[in-house]
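Technical annex B. To support the medicinal chemistry partners, we prepared a structural model of the target in complex with uridine-5'-diphosphate, based solely on the information shown next.
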Amino acid sequence: MKYFKQAKIEDQDFKGYKNLVPKQYEEVIKLSENFSKPKIIHINTAFGSGGVAEILKCLVPLERSLGLESEWLIMQGTPEFFNVTKKIHNLLQGKEGSLSEDEKQTYLSYTKKASEELMKYLDKSSGEQIVILHDPQPLPMIMEIPDTIPVISRLHIDITNENKELGQLLKPFTDRAKKIIVSDKKFIADWIQADKVLISLPATDPFNEKNKLISKEDASVILKKIGIDTERPLVSQISRFDPWKDPEGVIEAYLAARKKIKGLQLVLAGLIVAEDDPEAQGIYDELKDKYGDDHDIHLYGEKTPPGGIENEEFINALQTGSDVVVQKSLREGFGLTVTEALWKGQPVIGGNVGGIKKQIVDGENGFLVSSPEECAERIVELISKLEEKERMGKNAKETVKNEFLMSRLILDHFKVYDELLKK
Ligand code: UDP
């Protein structure tokens, strides 16, 4: 296949959830009995990194373990195509500007060609088939998919303040979808047919190496390997280098907090592996130029973590071993990094936006902040008030257990599959 690659993913067994969340487990099993091996085809544009890939790496094998014939196709893109789709992403999240006619053509003609290849892959005779298009990148293909195959448009991005012109471009595509899944009712823009919307929040995989519960001491061993002084406090943000993740704002907050907390160090970690994010390298290089000489600001933006360790181990050590975890986004569809840190009992300081607001209850399992100054104050508070931090950390873990494990996401998806396959 030229336009698609089939993702190679490891098997997983849903039985793992039985003891962890028995009620959700039973509900999922019951619903799965309604299905007779439907084919669910998930399509996105990145395997390397980002929240969507992270979810599919777990959702697809679990669906298979529950008897569905789920597939994950990664649509391949050219640099030209991904430059346009990243621009679409930014416009949808509220950036000023518009797409040129040429850019629109790139988007539409590339996806049209890709859809011809997709058609060969779909079984047009089978009614037991659903296609899920994740995010806007593959969305125009919906026009070519026959009406007999239900298509779900899953928009993971924060569209609270989107560019209207772009909405008009996407409207015919979402109009054709049988269901549109977004993470917040605020993301139901006026070009989205509200009666087709399901609000479903993403979720994390508790069995991923990244989420394996390790001790602070084990985390310290790894942090030392990557050059962190584990005798001194550490604040970190794990995120792609992207303007909406506000890396500059995090550095500003850190520099203010460092005036009060002696020896404070900062990590910004965003390994550059997402194929569909062409902006990251430039942002990382700029920050390196500006702050590279400050030995207490550690920027990790290569393709692999330093010290020969694996990505999962690296992220786990940072989320477990940091004194404070920050996710100071200015827009955020969901923010899986928040979920991952909460799961490890870390209260998170998050930007008061989008999906972060759905996970953090201010003062209960973290703090919501709207400026670098507020962020700096909360960093100082969490480092100096350990009892408060411990109380919030316990709540943090409970939040994820009750609402944000993959079993809950599967339940949401199965309800939709059940509804669409019955129609
Ligand atoms: N991530 C990673 N390595 C990195 C940076 C991020 O594995 O160096 C992962 C992170 O652990 C999370 C995902 O990428 O699972 C990011 O998802 P999120 O929803 O926070 O943001 P997105 O990138 O999708 O906007």
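Notes passed to the chemistry partners:
Residues 49-51, 54, 210, 238, 240, 269-271, 311, 315, 334-337, 340 surround uridine-5'-diphosphate (CB under 6 Å).
The mean pLDDT is 95.
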